[in-house]
Design a protein that fits this description.
Layout lengths: L1 H7 L3 E8 L8 H13 L4 E6 L13 E3 L3 H9 E6 L5 E2 L2 E2 L6 E4 L18 H9 L4 E3 L3 H10 L7 E2 L4 H4 L6 H8 L6 E5 L5 H6 L14 H10 E5 L16 E3 L6 H7 L2 E4 L4 H6 L5 E4 L3 H7 L13 E2 L2 H10 L5 H10 L6 H13 L2
Parallel strand pairs: 1-2, 1-4, 2-3, 4-7, 7-8, 8-9, 10-11, 10-13, 11-12, 13-14, 14-15
Antiparallel strand pairs: 5-6
């Protein structure tokens, strides 16, 4: 059906289609490009592929496209430009042909964990997509991730550009106090952003669930110090369960919060595991702790491109170790600055470059 429709639907140069995290969110680099594009050229018809249409979303309802629907196929074929940080063209296991359309992919971070062919639990359709998808422009930050993406996306290996990511180029001066009130952070507490990634066996096979921070299992003195000095923001991965194991009056679930940049800005410390958020957070040069309670299992089920200890930041395997460090030590940022220098060596020009491509290709 897709091939037949492709023969009859004419590309419209005024159509641009976006998605973020497979339609689960309206954020990240595609959102930044969308907002810049609307400021610069309002006569383009900008559609968003979403998991569920909702009149409360910031995108006009008429320009929301239900993921995997017939309209999704139609808008892809009609659009001159596709912009995504994941995949936008795989519908019920079938890749919609790109043809002469321009496909721009910003991905969603510098790779820490294995991607594509190296993923143990990946589906056949997803494996085929990684192998055969053809981007016109794929954004990387340095030679480190460019070299990885060339192997992950072999059919696009010649079109990976070290422009940086639009989400990292935007450095807004947020009002930190206003954000604390908006999120509901008590006065006088230091803010910890806990942002773990998902576990493949949990997501694909539903075998078990992700461990939380285990605060209830800590010694009472440590719980008291923690609950009176810190406030934890739990940011779950879009493929993970939506709640942490042990919520309390010292923790807020911000998984659905629309702006991760605001959460990073308001936070004093990041706790993560294998998530690429550590690279983005390093741009702020604030302390980072890795909590890798299941490192052996994760290496078996997914695998990592980097040895965590090579990053120079604290790596712990129990909740007690994490919170002893948090409560009793001054966390240094020198190693975080080195991460920033190593993984973001290029000048980020992604927004300008992408907007130039769009303007050249739309010509209206």
């Amino acid at each position: 059906m897709v091939i037949t429709l492709n023969q009859f639907i004419k590309i419209d140069k005024s159509y641009v289609v976006f998605n973020s995290f497979y339609g689960k969110r309206i954020d990240d680099s595609p959102r930044i490009i969308y907002e810049k594009l609307k400021e610069k050229k309002n006569n383009l018809k900008c559609y968003w592929v979403v998991s569920r249409r909702d009149k409360n979303l910031e995108i006009p309802y008429a320009y929301q496209v239900k993921k995997d629907s017939l309209k999704h196929i139609f808008i892809l074929l009609k659009s001159n430009i596709w912009i995504s940080n994941s995949n936008i063209d795989l519908i019920h296991g079938v890749m919609v042909p790109k043809g002469n359309r321009i496909y721009i992919n910003t991905w969603h971070g510098i790779p820490f964990k294995f991607l594509g062919e190296l993923e143990k639990f990946i589906s056949k359709d997803d494996r085929n997509w990684f192998k055969n998808v053809k981007f016109d422009y794929f954004c990387a930050c340095s030679e480190y991730d460019r070299s990885i993406f060339k192997k992950v996306f072999p059919s696009s290996s010649g079109n990976i550009v070290t422009w940086g990511l639009p989400r990292d180029e935007i450095k807004k001066e947020f009002n930190k106090e206003a954000l604390r009130k908006k999120i509901g952070i008590p006065d006088g507490r230091r803010v910890v952003l806990y942002a773990p990634t998902f576990r493949d066996a949990v997501f694909y096979e539903r075998k078990s669930k992700i461990n939380g921070l285990g605060i209830s299992e800590l010694p009472k003195w440590m719980q008291y110090r923690l609950e009176n000095k810190f406030f934890i923001l739990y940011r779950g991965h879009y493929n993970s369960p939506s709640t942490a194991d042990d919520m309390g009056n010292y923790m807020a679930n911000v998984t659905s919060y629309p702006n991760i940049d605001e959460l990073m800005c308001v936070s004093d410390v990041l706790i993560t595991d294998y998530s690429s958020i550590l690279f983005d957070f390093s741009l702020l040069e604030k302390p980072i702790i890795l909590f890798q309670y299941d490192l052996g299992i994760y290496m078996r089920d997914r695998g990592l491109y980097l040895n965590p200890s090579s990053l120079g930041i604290p790596v712990f395997f129990t909740s007690q170790e994490v919170f002893e460090k948090l409560i009793t030590s001054n966390l240094e940022t020198e190693s975080v600055s080195k991460i920033k220098e190593k993984f973001f060596p290029e000048n980020n020009c992604s927004i300008e470059k992408i907007l130039n491509v769009i303007e050249m290709e739309t010509s209206i």
